[in-house]
Amino acid sequence: MEYPELSIPSPGKWTEITDGLLWLRMPLPFDLDHINLYLIEDNDGWVVIDTGLASSTTKDLWTAIFSALDKPICGVIVTHLHPDHVGLAGWIAEEFKVPLYMSQLEYFTARALSEKAPGRSNWRDEEYFKRAGLATEQIDVLLSGNKGFGSVVSPLPLSYTRLKQNDVLSFKGREWRVMIGKGHSPEHVCLHCQELGVLLAGDHILPMITPNIGVYTTEPEGNTLQDYLATLVPFTELPSDTLILPAHKQPFIGVQARVDELISHHHRHLAALNEACEQPRSLVSLLPIMFKRELNGRNIMFAVAECLSHLNYLRFSNKLIRTLSDSGVYLYQSRHR
């Protein structure tokens, strides 16, 4: 893998990747403290690729960028529904009265998560964490600290333009082909421009860190890791000199090598978990197998989801047996033992 010498853009500024393609960076209030955003030039304006969280800080930075651009915004493309990507999509689309482009599953899932449902209980969330082996006190903290999707996402438009696998978008005469990845989110949009030799990869392929591949309370029996591994493979067919523009960390060249690393990373975790389940084990007891760092706060939620995606993969591959203990905790044991 190679990392071209590109200046990291300061908040409110941009770095030109090539003519008609700009790289921006916005701050995030998390351990991963930034997100990369992009602008593609079209004939009558600029198209926004992902937007950052819905916060006053991000709005102010966008406002400075809008003022400095030589053309207005003419469209918003969101790679996937996570708040750091879709957060200000509704606001920008409304401000400029422009279309919002998303895949179908990402748009409607984001709409569903944005809707408030008075009176709905959270017993399913409680059960999810109890099945994983978390203590009642931990579960209470996790659920009480959740302010909701809508607190960091501006209202989404009531209509959108759907993006599908192999759709082609044309901006200023250049074609961008849609490539769909799954696992990190339901129907993640990546955009490849063969003319420029560039892939806008979002969170599907990241350098230095691995995307979170989790099974969450919304679909506890999901097999997201299988989805992720399967949809990584088509990206190895891109030209070897393709410049990958990720949502986090640095742009890089070497997509085949990075895909191989990501696949190997997950298979190492799968092998370690399978080996650790010689005797019945709860998910919580298996977290140190996957995560060597101390887990605290909301990182526990992401760790549980990531571990569950691997356990579900092994279970659906017929390598693990899952049973329910008398205390209501799932226990996992290798079949070959």
TrEMBL record:
Pfam families: B_lactamase-like_C, Lactamase_B. It comes from the Bacteria. Keywords: Hydrolase. The keyword GTP-binding does not apply. Gene3D superfamilies: Ribonuclease Z/Hydroxyacylglutathione hydrolase-like, Winged helix-like DNA-binding domain superfamily/Winged helix DNA-binding domain. One of its GO terms (molecular function) is hydrolase activity. Signal peptide: none annotated. Residues 34-248 form the Metallo-beta-lactamase domain. This is MBL fold metallo-hydrolase. It comes from Alteromonas profundi.
